[in-house]
Amino acid sequence: MSHVRWNPMLGEWVIVTPKRASRPFQKKDHQCPFCPGQEETKGDWRVLTLENRFPALSPDVGPVPLDGDIVMEAPAFGICKVIITSPEHDNQIENMPDEQLELIMKEYLRVFKELDKTKGIEYVFQFENRGKAIGVSLNHPHAQVYAMPFIPPRISREITQARKIWEREDECMVCQIIENEQKSATSRIIKKSENFISVVPFFARLPYEVHIYPLSHASSLAELEGQLLELGRMIQDIARRYDAVFDENAYIMAFHTRPSSGTHPYWHFHIEFYPPWRDKSRIKYLGGVETGSFTYTNDSSPEEIAKELQEAL
Ligand SMILES: [Zn+2]
Ligand SMILES: [Zn+2]
Ligand SMILES: [Zn+2]
Question: Are 93 and 112 in contact (CB under 8 A)?
C-alpha cells in the first residue's frame, strides 16, 4: 500500500508507491485509455477529468496530521487526478483553438478550487509531463493534479524566500523579479501580453527553463478567473517555441500556487517550464553536482537561450 515516509536527512516526505511500478505503458495508439469511447472516458467531451487509476495518493485512507517530529510513516492520503486536455489523441496544445485553450484553463481552475477546499489537503499541485524524453507513458495530451497532505519541498523553499523579502522589504519577490526583467538591458522576456509575461529567468537552473508570471499580484488561478484564455495563450506560445526549437517537444510544466490552508499574502502565482534538453536534441542529464549536491550547473547562457526562443517563431 502507498504510504509516506519522513526523510529526516532532507526534512521532506517521500511518497512510497511500490505497486505503481507495474502501471501500464501505452503500446499502441488504438489502446489509448484517454481517447473517447474507452471504459472510463465514454461519451462526448472536450476536456475530461478522471481519477488517476494508479494514484500515488489516495483519499480513502483519510487525512493524517503529518509532523516529521512525531509521524515518521503514514498512509499516503491525497487525491490524484488526470485532466485529459483534448479528445483528439494527437492534438497537442500548439495547434489548439482558443475555445479549447479556454476550456482547459477553466478545468484547471475548477479542479483547483474543488481540491483546494478538501479537508486535509495542504497543497494542490497541477502539472504536465510532456514527451518521451521525460518518460511520458501516454502520448494523449493530458495534465495531472496531485492534491497533497503536505507542502512540497520546492514550494517550501520558495515560500521561505518570498516571505523573507515580504517581511524585510514589504515587497513581493516575484513582483521584484518581473520589474527587474522588464528593466534589464538584455531582454530575457519571451512574450508580454496585457496581463502576463514569460521569461527565461536571470537565475535559470536549466537551459530552457521558462517562467510565466501574471503581472498582477495574484496568489492562485482563482484570482485570474477573467484572464484564463490569455494565460492559456501564453502557455501555448511557449509550447510552440519549444516545438520549433527541439527535435522532439518535451517539457515539464508546473503551476506554483499558494498553499491550501492559511493566508499567503506574499505569494505570487506562476508557471514554470523545465524542458529536459540542453540543445535541440541532447538531453541535459542531472549529474553528480546537481543530484549529489543540489547545485545546478547551467551550461548555456539564459540570455542566449532567451534570444533563441524569442526568434523561434
Ligand atoms: Zn488517445
Ligand atoms: Zn507579486
Ligand atoms: Zn516557482
Answer: no
Which protein residues have a CB closer than 5 Å to ligand 3 (ion)?
158, 256
Tens-place pLDDT, residues 258-302: 999 999 999 999 999 999 999 999 999 999 999 999 999 999 999
Query: Hey, what domains does the chain have and what are their CATH numbers?
Result: 1-313 (3.30.428.10)
Which ligand places an atom closest to the C-alpha of 88? Answer: 1
Distance 35 CA to ligand 1 centre (A): 4
Sheet of 210-214, strands arranged across: 48-51, 79-84, 142-148, 123-130, 251-256, 270-274, 210-214, 196-199, 189-192
- Exposure b/e, 135-148, CB count within 10 A at least 16 = b: ebebbbbbbebbbb
142 is catalytic: yes
Q: Is the pTM of this model over 0.70?
A: yes
Question: What digits encode the pLDDT tens for the residues 98-121?
Answer: 999 999 999 999 999 999 999 999
Give the whole-angstrom CA distance, residue 89 versus residue 83.
Answer: 13
- Active-site hit among 142, 211, 268, 270: 142
